[in-house]
Design a protein that fits this description.
The chain has about 450 residues and is an alpha/beta fold. It folds into two domains: about 180 residues, Periplasmic binding protein-like II (D-Maltodextrin-Binding Protein, domain 2); about 210 residues, Periplasmic binding protein-like II (D-Maltodextrin-Binding Protein, domain 2, 3-Layer(aba) Sandwich), CATH 3.40.190.10. Helix content is about 40%, strand content about 10%. It has 18 helices and ten strands. Strands 1, 2, 3, 6, 7, 8, 9 and 10 form an eight-stranded mixed beta sheet that branches. The chain has a two-stranded antiparallel ribbon with strand order 4-5. Helix 8 crosses helix 9 and helix 17 runs antiparallel to helix 18. Keywords: Signal, Sugar transport, Transport. It holds the Pfam family SBP_bac_1.
Length: about 450
């Protein structure tokens, strides 16, 4: 009904206090119904990022018990939008945000705000990969459980590297990769450079790879020392400038993301690309009913460690993944903690890796026979060492602010200037943290 046709009830017939009481009672009943399944059992709501959705739905069903059911709800695609939706729910003390998939950089912010329940200390064990273990800790407590550990490697076509004369038998630099691609007509370098979180991932990895960091003491929050005006950040800016001004730059560089970069690898009449991207790439190109890639194309796919920012320092591959947290306001904290332990079991980590290319957060997951059957041994070892030797983003309760300020000053990549961008970004980020400027 529209307001014009909705019948009116005289005010005297329903006193205001009574109407409010009825409304509150109805809302309470709806909330109770939403939190329970048709059988009357409690239902835990698990908010998922879109990766591996079908497998995660199956895990939710497998981890449901006689005491509770687990239902899934899908979060937006981008990490930024995922954070906003979860933060709004948790800030409102939503009792139905029971479980949630978290980008590792969300954990410090959410834990610091009191939005996550602390988990048992043995959630992290000697079996957990070192590179992902620290992402779930905050203020000496454990506030999430690692589900998968992600990293980026350099994907490329063997035939392209051979045609370009680039020796992939050892470490390569970004400069070498860009020059190699530019030397072959039609070849490109694929990155993530849209104005979003993955662009900050690239910038952070470049800075770490040159021996620097974005923040000196990120745990100090707004009082952290900003260290963007550095030689390391200048080297990072040189890499971005070099690619943006090169013939190897893809036409959609300023809006590129993980998905857009994929198309250049085996495009029609294209020699291919060198591309930094996450572990899912292998399964994306593996011939199946879901794609049209040929076995010949797949056999031309190769991989190497993330490129070096400078020749004399090992690269710092990005470290990402997904951690699972329990909402602080859940009505079923014990059930939720139990569910997290089931969801993040090694068995389920291996299933995600084999099915969706989302790699385990544990050593035993990597040692699973099913994984060895699904991936080349050298690729598995590259993934594992890249996580353990890689570079995390700053572990700060104000990371969203840090990321937003970097995006604002480093985007577009075509406008990055090594002579000015690092200094300008440091000044702006410091001002934002001190409350003297707004994002």
């Amino acid at each position: 009904m529209t307001p014009a046709t909705r019948p009116r009830t005289p005010v005297a017939a329903t006193p205001r206090r009574t109407r409010v009481g009825v409304a509150v009672a109805c809302l309470g009943l709806l909330a109770a119904l939403a939190a329970c399944g048709s059988s009357g059992k409690p239902t835990l709501t698990w908010y998922l990022n879109p990766d591996g959705q079908e497998t995660l739905d199956a895990i939710a069903e497998a981890c449901s018990t006689e005491d509770y059911d687990i239902q899934t709800r899908l979060l937006p695609t981008s990490a930024t939008d995922q954070r906003v939706q979860l933060a709004r729910r948790l800030a409102a003390e939503d009792a139905q945000t029971d479980l949630m998939n978290l980008d590792p950089v969300f954990v410090p912010e959410f834990a610091n705000a009191g939005w996550l329940l602390e988990l048992p200390e043995d959630t992290v064990t000697d079996d957990t990969l070192e590179g992902i273990a620290e992402t779930v800790r905050w203020d000496e407590g454990v506030y999430a459980a690692p589900l998968w550990a992600n990293t980026q490697v350099l994907w490329y076509r063997r035939s392209l590297a051979q045609e370009a004369g680039l020796d992939m038998g050892g470490p390569v630099t970004w400069e070498q990769v860009i020059d190699a691609a530019a030397s072959v007509d039609g070849a490109t370098v694929g990155v993530q450079a849209n104005k979003y979180e993955a662009y900050v991932v690239w910038i952070n990895a470049l800075i770490l790879g040159a021996g620097g960091q974005v923040l000196e003491n990120p745990q100090d929050g707004r009082d952290a020392e900003v260290t963007l005006d550095s030689e390391a950040a200048t080297e990072a800016a040189r890499v971005i400038e070099a690619l943006a001004s090169s013939d190897a730059a893809q036409g959609d560089l300023s809006v590129s993301n993980e998905g857009t970069a994929l198309a250049y690898m085996f495009g029609s009449d294209s020699p291919g690309e060198f591309m930094t991207n996450w572990t899912f790439v292998y399964k994306n190109y593996e011939p199946s009913d879901a794609n049209d890639y040929t076995r010949e194309q797949f056999e031309d796919l190769a991989w190497a460690r993330y490129p070096r920012t400078v020749p004399d320092r090992p690269s710092a591959p990005p470290v990402g993944g997904i951690d699972v947290g329990v909402g602080a306001f859940t009505a079923y904290p014990d059930f939720a903690r139990e569910a997290v332990a089931c969801i993040t079991s090694v068995e389920h980590q291996v299933e995600l890796a084999v099915t969706d290319g989302l790699m385990p957060a544990t050593q035993s997951g990597y040692d699973a026979p099913r994984l060895a059957d699904a991936y080349p041994s050298d690729l598995l070892e590259l993934f594992r060492t890249s996580v353990d030797e890689g570079g995390p983003r700053p572990k700060s309760a104000f990371y969203a602010t840090v990321s937003g300020a970097i995006q604002a000053t480093w985007h577009s990549p075509t406008e990055v200037d090594p002579r000015s961008t690092p200094a300008e970004s440091e000044e702006y980020l410091r001002a934002v943290l001190e409350g003297k400027a707004l994002l």
